[in-house]
Design brief:
Strand order of the largest sheet: 6-7-8-3-9-10
CATH architecture of the largest domain: 3-Layer(aba) Sandwich
Number of helices: 21
Number of strands: 20
Structural class: alpha/beta
Largest sheet: 6 strands, mixed
CATH class of the largest domain: Alpha Beta
CATH superfamily of the largest domain: P-loop containing nucleotide triphosphate hydrolases
Low-confidence stretches: none
Radius of gyration: 25 Å
Number of domains: 2
Strand content: 15-25%
Length: about 550
Amino acid sequence: MTQPTPLLSVQNLSIALPRGGDRAYAVQDVSYDIRAGEILCIVGESGSGKSMSANAIMGLLPDYLTPQQGRILFRGQDLLRQDETALQAMRGKDMAMIFQEPLSALNPLMTVGEQISEVMRVHNAYPGAQRMARTLEMLAFVGLPDPATLYHVYPFRLSGGQRQRVMIAMALALEPALLIADEPTTALDVTTQAQILALIARIQKEKGMGVMFVTHDFGVVAEIAHRVAVMEKGILVEQGPAEEVLNRPRHPYTQRLIAAVPHRRGDARAATADEQPVLDVRDLKKTYVVGRGWLGNKREVHAVDGVSFSVRRGETLGIVGESGSGKSTIGKCLLKLVSIDGGQLVFNGQDIAAMPEARFRPLRHDIQMIFQDPYASLNPRHTVGRIISDGPAANGVPRAQAEARARELLSLVGLDPSAFDRYPNQFSGGQRQRIGIARALALEPKVLVADESVSALDVSVQAQVLQLLHDLQQRLKIALVFITHDLRVAAQICNAVLVMHRGKVVEHGSPAQIFDNPQHTYTRQLIAAVPGQHWDPSHAQAA
């Protein structure tokens, strides 16, 4: 049977880097097709070239990157031979893109409605009152409430999921034939992610679009892909039907990526029943005043509302929930980075919640945090050695001893000793997260709080960091509070799991209890929203 002509055909595309080195190409000799009515997932780690090829299709490569060879045929036209005027005429109308971070892609000075209307204005589509009617229609089409009100709202007032829906509405306003989605769900919590994936799949089916979906999440691939292309260091190493690539991967790189996908581990150590908790949280409360009504009355959000739990040495307690559930606020309360409105934080028999800062300061080194964004939390002006050794030095450890310990910790977290004299911007995201872990461990804490510490990492780097945390915790007997919105990660690493919803604990138990027999409706909703549940990565067999 003859295959239909591809909507998009990328043929032998190579994009040279402006400098030489081990790899002179960002993308090298890459070929793939996308047909109308098909979703092709491009998967790979950061630096694999997947987003680079997407930007080449849209003509959005930076000036210093130029395709050296190949063709990008869209409806028979070679996009690489089109001038900027021709590409501008196609963007939005014939092909459109959804970006990873909608807040930076949306204009903060224009309302949501104005930005969707702008797409139509640029292409002289939907004249007069039809333009506003079409904008309201698109807002409703992507599932946003009260389009007439939302039209006049600015992007910063929307949630991450709502902003992503606005981006989708902009991309679909003129019903393009090709939609490119570049990591559009990476930063979203699991239920919002499920909604966006379902929305894209529904629209693709209804409109018969060709979709290129760039991702590093194999759960997403299993959920929506018809075909999969795997990229490594600019080279396309494997492609084929989704069922084939996911369950019978041929290339060693694909096999390694799938092996790194989080799944339930069978060796999680249960805490010994007679161990005393190192941290006992009792009826913790934190309320934020978010504004005032028109009569002057305060509007309050109960971010943490009567939360209780305990964690023992060598135990990992997972705190899961959507954005706004209160889980990160709990982490800040544990370190007393925010004021606490009620309850007790009993650490080694002392209630630190009401303790004045002067009394708590000597205990601060015992409770440390690994932050979500290691780049933002590391001082770019300081060397890695100084970043790690400053904490112990400030707590009375001689500088030479602190620096020697920093070198030991770099080795412990799997970094080369030369990292000591380098700066954070010289490392990858996964390496910076290892530096963050080393800094937290430098003070020899008894409690370690990891706040979304692997959510932004590629799947293989994520697996390495999770294994590192597990190994360090077992070796040093640290109590680990692991905050995450990724239920697959929680199932892999945690001994006990706390499910948060609107500031309250709705369920608490072992991973087996939570994931195999959830009792609360909200827990069941969270688990049902995890992408790719029908696919078990542990059952994948090398072809």
